[in-house]
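Regression test attached.
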Amino acid sequence: MALYTKEELFLAISTVIDPEVGFNLVEMGLIYDAECDDEGNVKVTMTLSTKACPLHQMIVQWVKEAVEKMADIKEVEVEVVWEPVWNISMADDNVKKALGA
Amino acid sequence: MNSISQDFAPPFKLIAPYFILGGIFYILSSFFVFSFEVSELSFLNPSIISFVHLFLLGFIMMTIFGAMAQLVPVVLEVGHFGVELFYAIWPLLLIGTLLMVFGFVYSADLLPYGGVVVLISMMIFVMEIFMTIFKVKKLNLVMSSVLISNTFLFFGIIVGLLMALTYAGTIDLNIHELLRAHVYLVIGGYISITIMGLSIVLVPMFTLAHSFSMRPLEISITLMSVGVSLVVLSSVFSVEVLAYLGYLLSIISMCFYFYIIYIIYKTRPRKENDVYAISLMISYSSLISALLLGIAYFVTAKEEMLLASAWIMFFGFFGFLITGHIYKIIPFLVWFERFSPLVGKEKVPMLADMVPYKSSQAQMIFSAVGVLLVTLAILFRSDVLIDAGASFLVVGAFAFFRSMLFMINFK
C-alpha cells in the first residue's frame, strides 16, 4: 500500500509558489502526477510553463524539498516532461480568473 | 539548495554595472536632447552622431549586453563559455563610448581610440557568445537568431572602426557608404534581430502565451538578414538599387515581427496590464509609428520623416522594450540572489512586489510624452517642442533610474 496518496503529495507540493505569477504549482496545473510506493519512494511528474524558465532547476529542487518534508519519505525523483505541453486550460479556475484568461 | 547550478543566473554583481551604467546613459541621452536644434538636425551632424552613440552604445548596447549575460543561458539552454569575461566588457564599453561621444563633438582624434576600445569590448562579447553557441548541440530558430545577430555585430563593429579611422583622417574611405553599412549591420542586423529572437522567448514567458506559429518570426529574421546583407552589398559595390531593396525587405520584416507579437498579445492568457505590459504596448506602437514614418519618407522624400522615424524607433521602440524588460530582469536577478535561498524557510516577496509602482508609472508616462513631443518637434521643426520633450524625457529617465535602484536595493 502506498505510503501517501496522490492528493497528499499534491497538497505538500502546493506549498511551492511560482514567484513570477504568484500561484502555487498545483493550481497552475504544472504537476501532472505524483506517486509514492510503500517504502516512501516518490516520483513526481511535472512540467513548466516554458522551456526557457530560468528557475527550472530551482523549482525542481523546491518540489523535491516540499515532498522530502513529509514523514518517512526515502527518496524523491522529479521528472520534468514537455508532453503534454502546458497551457492555461490546465490551471484551476481561480488562476484563470485572476490572470484574466 | 547549494547544489543548484548558477549557470542560468550569473551573480548579480556581474550584471549590475551594466544596468546602472545603462540607466546613467539613459539620463545623459535625455539631457542631450536639450542640445538639439531643429535647423541643424541631420544624420551627418557630429552632435547627432554623438547622441546616437551615447544612446545606442551607452544605454541600448550596455543594457543588452548585461541582459544577455543572464538571457543567453536561458535561450541557448547551456551555461556560458566564460561568464567572467563580462567583468571586462562593461569597463571597456564605458571608456570606448565616452571617447567616441566626446570625439564626435570635441575632437575627432579621440575617435580611433574610442573605436578600438569599443571594438575590443564587443569582440570579447561576440567571441564569448560564439563559444557558448558552439556548446549547443542543435540550434533552434531563436538560437540561430543569436548566432546571426552576433555575426552582423562582428562585421558592424569592424565597419565602425573603419569609419572612426576615416573620420579621424587616418585612412581615406567613403564615409557615407560605410555609414549605411554600419547603421544597418548594428541596428538592423544586431539590435533588431536580437530583439526579435529574445522577445519571442520572453514575451510568451511573461504573458503565458502558447500555441502560436513561429513561421512569421522565421520569415521576419530571414527578410531582415537578407535586407541587411543587401544594404551592405550596396555600400561595397555602390549599387543604389540594392540598398532600396534592403530597406523594403527590412520594413516587411518588421511587419512580420509585429504580426507575431500581435498574435501573442491577442492570445495571451495573462491579461494584467502591469508596467511591463504597458511598456511593451508603447514600444510596439512606436515600432508601427516608425514604420509608417519610414514609408512616408519614401513617398515624400522629406528628411524630417526619416529623422522622426529613427527617433521614435530608438527612444520609443528600443527604449521602452528595454525599460519594460528591466522591470522583469532586475527583480528576478535580485530575488534569485537574495530571496531564493529563503524559500520554504520564511515568507519571500513575489517578483511583482519588487517593482516600485509610482516611479515606474511616472517613468512610463513622462518618457512616453517626451518621445511624442520630440517626434512632433522633429516633424514640425519646433525648438520649443524639443525643449518640452527633453524636459519630460529627463524626468522619465530619473524616474527609471530611481525604480532601478529601488529594485536593486530591495530587502
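Expected vs. actual: identical. Residues 1-6 of chain B have pLDDT under 50 and may be disordered.
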